[in-house]
Queue: 3 jobs
Job 1
Amino acid sequence: LSTERLNDFEYLVSNFYTVDSVTYINPSELNASELLGKDLRIDLSTGGSKILIYHTHSQEAFADSVPGDVNTGIVGVGEYLTQVLTEQYGYRVLHHTGQYDVETRDNAYSRALPEVEQLLAKNPSIQVVIDLHRDEAQDPRLVTELQGRPTAKFMFFNGLSRTRKTGDIDYLRNENQEANLAFSFQMQLKAAEYYPGLTRRIYLKGYRYNMHLCPRTLLVELGAQNNTYEEAINACDPLAHILDMVLGGE
């Protein structure tokens, strides 16, 4: 795709984004040249963990997950993604398995926030934060065939700290929003180049979702409740590959 075409706001939104009805996005916030020009490479020359993976909604499960066993749900997928990033790409990854939605999903982001802030304070080497989720979706199932394996589709998600009703939400200010948007867009373009059809459009919604904690923050919706655990696991390999290319500046 040419930069000229991507810089057409209407084309960009209609082909790469789903904007939730509760919010809106301005052309100045989705300038393709600026999003692609953002340098998201990370420094691997120093020690310590570089990537944090956690789960605001740890109880999200798949069609064949064992009830009550988070290791057969999204937490288990996070553990496998950690393994791939560590063993195949050489990243030091911290997988946080704190649970914030056991009794209720309400206010899970608020409950997660202080613990994630504490983790980042204790591990200042972390440069990437991934909040890994499983979506709730209807048919058709979010699955595709990739290298002979059934693979769950995934979606990048951004909060805009803005609703149509209230306008910009000052108490949910996100100074890293531009970098967050650049990160998901660069990931989306790499996915389209190397794994066409694997990702859904980037979803833009009205609140913040703790994405203010780090410039390189991703919220990923990997598969849905009607995907199998195997399909979700199979998506970790291309997700890790895309992540490595973006963080490596390829």
Job 2
Amino acid sequence: MSPDAPILFFDSGVGGLSVVAPTRALIPSAPFIYAADSAGFPYGTKSEAEIAARVPALLGRLVERYRPRLVCIACNTASTIALSVVRAALDVPVVGTVPTIKPAALISKTRVIGVLGTDATVRQPYVDKLSAEYASDCIVIRHGSAELVTLAEAKLRGEPIAADAIKAAIAGLFTAPDGDRIDTVVLACTHFPLLEAELAAAAPHPVTFVDGSAGIARRVAHLTAGQDWPLVAPPGIAIFTRLDEDVEALSPALAACGFSEIVAL
């Protein structure tokens, strides 16, 4: 394995940056590549068939071009739908991102948990499986929001975020039956930790937010333990399937995360 072989992070947008930060903290000299399917953004409103076809094809092209040592699908929607297909298709380790229902169940006192994700994620049978396996004694309330994904991207572009927009986006979670008893909310979209402060301010009562970013970072570090790395991490590359003015506006946020070069796939 060449020390220069990168770790490749993949998402429909820039939500996966919430996974990049804790991973970089654990492996500071690792070369990172970030790939965003901006032409297919957002995934949460697409059908399972579209995502199952699109994600493996894109990752196949990215792996062929950049030869990463590991791929991290930093997207709950893509992972819950296409992870098994991607793993079967690629000859590199693949780490996925799934809703952190188990940790939420371990800390919930009221035994009522909210799962806040995209529409595509919260309807997946995989969420049923996790709920049955790890939260069978809990009420699990799911709520999908495409608007929060858009708001997270806007925040990283430096745009102001209206508090009322956040409140409206999460209202259905807390107005559902037993929603007033939710004490723990799973952020089942990598975009949503980017809005955690806004979500906390908008929630009608105090809740604990949990997400999988730290666990994913530990998994990536474990799978690459003992491998050779450069003495100093090279500048990261951010790849977009479509370059437009929105991507240009993300340049400062990407640079702050170590991605100084932006290219098209």
Job 3
Amino acid sequence: KYIREALDGILMQKVNFHYEVVIHDDASPDNTQNIIREYEKKYPDIIKVIYQAENKYSKGESAFQYYVDYLIGEYIAICEGDDYWTNPNKLQKQVDFLDKNPEYIAAAHNVRVINENYEVINEDLHPYKIFHEYIFKREDAFKLKLPSQLASIVYRNIWLNLDKKIIKLYNNCKTNGDQKLAVLLTNFGSIYCFKDVMADHRKITSHGTSWSARI
């Protein structure tokens, strides 16, 4: 239902560099694969897809292990399938910052949190409060705080040179995905958090099998 919006938010980015879109489809039972194939055909030099024949998540397997070897760019940005980027200059702004500030491992920004009807969700009901620009440090991650929601993060590609044992430990760590990423990244540097709101994070609250709906 939302995959087109996620892909369009990525493909509208105005950048002066080449980027790839790596999509992991975990054997979607709906029309998602057909939509992905449509985009794959239209943007063959940009979109790279990993299609699973059977759903791995239902077996307790992390999707990360199936796509980590596809992450070969200098930087990595994240956008889950029901979120979307809203600012066409998002990637360029974050990459420019990281190019100029090598001491930072990542850059993040504010997100707007909405429900399936595009209504803004009250801040009391989610952890992603609007903030002013600040620096997210290792001690923040160890207090189980988050720099922002995953759709906001662009980080240096640590996976290319990280010890395989560390990657395996990371993959097998059964905890919240954005939490363990924040802990791992801040071992390599701080995360600069822009005040700009450049993405929408969607929480499906009324129906379906999404994590948000279930809780």
